[in-house]
Design a protein that fits this description.
- The structure holds three protein chains of three kinds.
- Chain A is mainly α.
- In chain A, about 70% of the residues lie in helices and about 0% in strands.
- Helices cover about 75% and strands about 0% of the residues of chain B.
- In chain B, helix 1 packs antiparallel against helix 2.
- The termini of chain B are far apart.
- By secondary structure, chain C is mainly alpha-helical.
- Among the domains of chain C are: about 240 residues, no CATH class; about 40 residues, no CATH class.
- The chains are: A mainly alpha, B mainly alpha, C mainly alpha.
- Chains in contact: A-B, A-C.
- At the A-C interface, strand 1, helix 3, helix 4, helix 5 and helix 10 of A face helix 16, helix 17, helix 22, strand 3 and helix 23 of C.
- Strand 1 of chain A pairs parallel with strand 3 of chain C, so a sheet runs across the interface.
Chain lengths: ~300, ~220, ~650
């Protein structure tokens, strides 16, 4: 390994540690400014994490090793996702993942978070876990359709080859990239429990999903859970932002370092749009959610149509 | 094969139409319809550029004014007076009607390949596919909705499809004919609006699924 | 001594099975279960060693003309394919031998040990022999022995009325299956004038119809949709070790038959391939959909078997499609996926059934509404069920993911490599469907594990649950160890299928597997790091208190979530198939404001079962009632029937 790749790895590690909480802070700040509030500083979530890590932990007497094990497992999986999936161009990767592993790693995270919600015998956690699984059943085909359509055009299932700017067949398909980006972005909003699907700022709504699942976590356990969610935000927003970046790359070619800079911009933009939706929109009723996810599936199906039309 | 920029514009037109299938909120539907018509106006202007027909620019401008401006505004004001801005949906679940629309898009592609291509020297049948898909999408919209305003919107989408199909098949219709159709459309929408008022007055709702009581 | 010298251990194991049968006939009611399970353990171990030493060349024992009255020479032909299935059988046999003795205490006086052990020995031995048959006559004889002995095992609990019903349904399914198979066999015999599988495989074209009939027969035995009905009944009512054997190995015998007779023949047709793919996809979806609403652990596992068999049949369809269109990549990935999934499912499904049996044994219930919080009382069973759930949801990095990944890869190569646009559309749609099925299996197994082992006990009997004895726990952990070996050695295993593939495909060409070991390490390093840094360091800083519940304080037991409410949001998406009915009964004087009791009952109505299968079964019932009039009881009339049939057959037979 030469010096530049060492440097790249160090930069990547630093980014993975620091950026996810900052993204959360960015969403909160943007939202606050849009609602005419000052808002907490950008690095507040980082400080919150440090504070939580140093606190003690209150655990339910019904809880088993699953509650605390799940948080650790989820952070490990989220870290693996963050170092292997292409959320920013030009990132070094220890090994490649393909689209199937990518989706199943998210499923693995869900497995653990659902179990930790059930572990404390809390009815809130249980109901929220049931809802989370329901959303996943609808979202996973949407993500799979978008990614498979890209993979079919690229003729490879390797995620980093699909997002490499080098595939000839894929680099001219601006329309496909935009549709895949829309599909992935909408799915990410649901997967991350952001606004139209779930309100990340309320804890006592009857239809809450993510927040009710982590209701019983506290202290370092909560810190790890929050950090894993933030990592997930980075990866999913990154990947959907990347899709739009590739759509632009069909018309504007540039150097790799510029691509990395634009990639960072794309992540920020995707996160800013999320904040905008949260500041202006309202949470959908639970019964209306399948109709919202249907849009993600529709974009996936459109990707499929384009991919079938394109590859002869 | 890769999609040209004009094809992308046409696909965006078809996608906005399919998106209309997925929402039951009439306000959102009208906004999507306005966007959809605006895109068609842009496509018309594009054709005027490539075919060097300045008249098409005028068509595009009037098209945008009437279909993206007046019609959505008029229907919106009717809804505000008549009430009922959400549709319960009928026949198939709302969430499923978009995938059905896409399946019909695929079927239209098969249909378009069988049609004799008149112009469009590139040999592609993308334009025909999307134009035909607008017609089927409009039909689907009329079939799957209960509130009468949505039938009007579905009809308008079908009309847009026919217009687009004529543009892809021929060099476009004569200017006078285009204007005449637009005027007819305007009148049709106005009449539909008046009818809606009458229906509301007589039945106290505009839900066409309940009109079966007229059977005997 | 060379490893290959151990080959005679396979026939020796049959001798041991035979002696076990004899012992259980004569002394079964007196000898204790431990001795007989020891015999089973020894014979399965012998079989395992024999199989491993014969891999991959196989062997031929016989022919011994004295068997079967000289109709066909009876012989044991083992090739790589047979050895592969025997390997699964012997492993599962080993673990159920360890599990059985303590589990059988559960049934106490309701079962007859002699019959149980006799049937079990016959079951295992006949299943092993089915894999070794090279001709149709002996195949069908041992197939029948296997079916009948397993039916006798399903009804082990003679006091249970539901077990009797299950046995009737199961026997009905096996009858139809055997009839279809035998029709196909007779037809093939008429075409080739031979009973030997080897002669049948060289046939082209003409064999398609009889093979399709045989395929339908195998589908019934395998339990694919729409023939899956017997699985939930038989697997639920049989004792846990028997369910493990039936689900882990017996349904795979049908898969073995499909590979042996259909994949290994020259008759490859696109239409049969598409039928297999469609049946597989529908079974997978149907099975996993019904796991959502099941509240009985073993029934849920049975439906999950339908799902997994669906995936296996789907990949068999892929192999057929690849063979008929001459695309090596698709057929070899499909074959690897099929075999690997057979192997995986043959290990983790018995594991789950044994754990479910342990729950049944310890907490005296299989109903999720009556369990809960067992993790504290049965930590080892909880661990094995946890592992099994992770594996069966095919979550990375475990072995389940490796085989699912291969099936995905097969579909992906179809979507990239096929020339026909309909095939490609189908492949991508199937990939999306499989991902949905994956999400749904996560939903159903988190439900089982969460509601059964986590939280608090919902009933007093669950709070007094006890762990099974050591041998039963070891039996589960043997299977876990096997799964772990498969996880780390996924690449080697896939390469190891080469001798099997030689009989099926002209060329075996599989892409490099995912780096499973690296994946495990990449996940384990942060896991261990965080564990030590946070949990160990922060242990002194942890306080235990009652669950917070947003400050509501201690909630009553019945406010906790149960299986029906947990899956209700998911099941409501599929309202066409599953409908919820809620019945409220409010009692009391002023019922609206101060009710005395509120009784809410929710139950699911399964539309298809109600409106599709019930009419068919009722029609059969009516037909039976009509036919019963033919049975007069008079000997003369019966003799008349016999002669009439004879004359009819002679007339048909002498047609030019």
């Amino acid at each position: 390994m030469n010096n530049t790749s060492w440097l790249a790895y160090i930069a990547l590690t630093a980014a993975i540690v620091v950026v996810p909480p900052l993204l959360i802070g960015f969403i909160r700040k943007t939202k606050a400014r849009l609602q005419n509030r000052v808002g907490a500083p950008y690095h507040q979530p980082l400080l919150d994490l440090i504070k939580l890590l140093s606190k003690g932990e209150l655990v339910s007497e019904h809880a088993s090793w699953v509650l605390r094990g799940a948080a650790i497992a989820n952070v490990s999986i989220a870290l693996l996702l963050a170092v292997t999936s292409p959320w920013i161009p030009g990132m070094p990767r220890p090994f490649d993942v393909d689209i199937f592993l990518f989706i199943y790693l998210f499923a693995l995270m869900r497995f653990f978070s659902v179990l930790s919600a059930l572990d404390t015998a809390s009815p809130f956690g249980g109901f929220a876990a049931g809802r989370d699984l329901t959303l996943a059943v609808l979202v996973e085909p949407a993500v799979m359709l978008c990614l498979t359509a890209l993979a079919v055009v690229a003729q490879t299932a390797n995620l980093s080859e699909i997002f490499s700017f080098t595939g000839k067949a894929l680099s001219v398909q601006a329309g496909l990239w935009v549709m895949a980006g829309c599909g992935l972005y909408l799915s990410s909003l649901v997967e991350l429990s952001r606004m139209p699907a779930d309100d990340p700022t309320t804890h006592l709504e009857l239809t809450m999903v993510h927040e009710a699942m982590i209701l019983e976590n506290s202290g370092p356990n909560l810190a790890l859970t929050e950090y894993a969610t933030a990592l997930k935000l980075l990866v999913l927003m990154g990947v959907s932002g990347q899709c739009f970046l590739h759509a632009f790359a069909a018309v504007w070619q540039t150097s790799p370092s510029m691509q990395t800079a634009c990639g960072a911009g794309a992540v920020l933009l995707a996160v800013a749009v999320t904040a905008l939706i949260e500041a202006t929109g309202v949470k959908l009723r639970w019964t209306k959610l399948p109709e919202f996810i249907a849009y993600a599936i529709t974009f996936g199906l459109l990707c499929l149509v384009v991919a079938l039309g394109v590859v002869k | 094969m890769s999609l040209s920029s004009f094809d992308l514009l046409l696909s965006a037109i078809a996608i906005t139409a399919i998106m209309m299938l997925g929402t039951t909120n009439i306000g959102t539907n009208l906004r999507l319809y306005a966007l959809h018509s605006l895109l068609i106006a842009a496509a018309t202007a594009w054709l005027g550029q490539t075919r060097h027909e300045p008249a098409l620019f005028l068509v595009a401008a009037i098209f945008a004014l009437v279909k993206a401006g007046f019609v959505p505004w008029f229907l919106n004001s009717i809804i505000r007076q008549v009430g009922g801005h959400s549709d319960s949906g009928a026949f198939i679940p709302t969430a499923l009607s978009m995938p059905v629309g896409i399946a019909l898009l695929g079927a239209n592609n098969v249909l378009a390949q069988r049609l004799p291509t008149v112009i469009n020297g590139d040999g592609g049948n993308i334009g025909e596919t999307f134009a035909l898909s607008l017609i089927t999408t409009g039909m689907l919209l009329m079939l799957t909705r209960n509130i009468a305003v949505n039938q009007v919107i579905g009809f308008l989408v079908i009309e847009n499809g026919i217009y687009l199909f004529s543009q892809t098949q021929t060099q476009g219709m004569p200017m006078a004919l285009e204007m005449g159709i637009l005027l007819d459309l305007l009148v049709a929408v106005m009449i539909a609006g008046i009818l809606l008022f009458r229906i509301k007055k007589n039945f106290e709702h505009i839900d066409i699924s309940k009109l079966t009581e007229l059977k005997d | 001594m060379h490893i290959a010298d151990l080959k005679p251990l396979v026939p020796l194991s049959f001798g041991l099975f035979g002696s076990g049968t004899v012992v259980s006939i004569f002394w079964g009611h007196r000898s204790n279960n431990t001795f007989l399970s020891g015999v089973l353990f020894a014979s399965c171990l012998t079989l395992l060693i024999g199989v491993l030493s014969s891999w991959p060349q196989g062997f031929v024992n016989g022919p011994y003309p004295i068997f079967l009255g000289g109709l066909v020479p009876f012989a044991q032909h083992a090739d790589a394919l047979s050895l592969f299935f025997l390997f699964i059988l012997s492993l599962v046999g080993l673990s159920i031998a360890l599990f059985s003795p303590s589990y059988l205490e559960h049934f106490k006086e309701h079962f007859h040990p002699g019959i149980y052990w006799f049937s079990l020995f016959v079951f295992v031995a006949s299943m092993a022999q089915v894999f070794l048959c090279a001709d149709a006559i002996s195949f069908i004889i041992f197939w029948e022995l296997m079916s009948l002995s397993s039916a006798a095992l399903v009804i082990t609990n003679r006091a249970s009325h539901t077990a009797k019903k299950a046995t009737i349904i199961y026997l009905g399914a096996t009858r139809v299956s055997t009839t279809l198979m035998f029709c196909g066999f007779l037809w093939l015999h008429a075409l080739t004038n031979s009973w030997s599988f080897a002669d049948w495989s060289t046939m082209r074209g003409a064999g398609l119809l009889p093979l399709s009939i045989i395929f339908a027969g195998f589908c019934i035995k395998a339990g694919t949709w729409p023939f899956h009905l017997w699985l939930p009944y038989a697997h639920t009512e049989a004792p846990a070790p028997i369910s493990a054997l039936m689900s882990g190995v017996m349904v795979k015998v049908a898969i073995y038959g499909m590979i042996r007779l259909i994949l290994m023949s020259n008759t490859a047709s696109v239409s049969l391939a598409l039928v297999a793919i469609a049946l597989g996809a529908i079974s997978a979806f149907w099975g996993i959909l019904f796991t959502q609403v099941e509240g009985d652990i073993k029934r849920l596992l049975a439906y999950s078997t339908v799902e997994n068999i669906g995936l296996i049949v789907l990949s068999i369809g892929l192999v057929l499609l690849g063979k008929s269109t001459n695309v090596v990549a698709i057929s070899s990935i499909g074959l690897a996926g099929c075999l690997f999934h057979v192997l995986n499912h043959g290990l983790y499904k018995p594991l789950l059934f044994l754990s479910a049996g342990a729950v049944d044994w310890g907490a005296h219930s299989r109903d999720l509404a009556k369990l809960g919080g067992l993790q504290r009382l049965m930590p080892w069973t909880a661990a094995s069920f946890f592992f099994g759930s992770l594996a069966i949801c095919s979550l990375p990095p475990l072995n389940g993911f490796a085989s699912k990944w291969l099936i995905y890869q097969g579909l992906f190569s179809l979507s990239v490599g096929s020339n026909s646009i309909s095939d490609r559309t189908m492949a991508i749609a199937l990939i999306a469907l499989l991902s949905m099925i994956g999400a749904m299996s996560v939903a159903s197994f988190t439900k089982v594990f969460g509601l059964c082992f986590l939280g608090t006990p919902r009933t007093p009997q669950a709070s007094h649950a006890k762990e099974m004895p050591l041998a039963a726990l070891i039996s589960q952990h043997i299977l876990i160890a096997c799964c772990l070996v498969l996880t780390f050695g996924a690449g080697l295993i896939v390469d190891g299928f080469k001798p099997i593939a030689q009989g099926v495909l002209p060329k075996y060409d599989v892409p490099a597997m995912l780096p499973q070991p690296q994946l495990v390490v990449a996940l384990a390093i942060p896991l261990i790091l965080f564990y030590f840094v946070l949990i160990i360091r922060g242990r002194s800083n942890v306080k235990y208190f009652s669950t917070w519940e947003c400050g509501y304080g201690k909630l009553p037991l019945r406010s906790f979530i149960d299986a029906a409410s947990f899956t209700r949001p998911l099941a409501s998406l599929f309202g066409l198939v599953i409908q919820y009915r809620t019945e409220n009964q409010i009692q009391g004087r002023d019922r609206r404001h101060f009710p005395d009791t509120i009784d809410v009952k929710a139950h699911q109505v399964l539309w298809v079962e109600k409106f599709f299968y019930s009419p068919i079964l009722n029609a059969f019932d009516a037909l039976g009632k009509g036919l019963i009039k033919l049975q007069t009881g008079s000997i003369h009339i019966h003799l008349f029937y016999v002669f009439a049939t004879l004359i009819l057959l002679v007339l048909i037979g002498t047609q030019p």
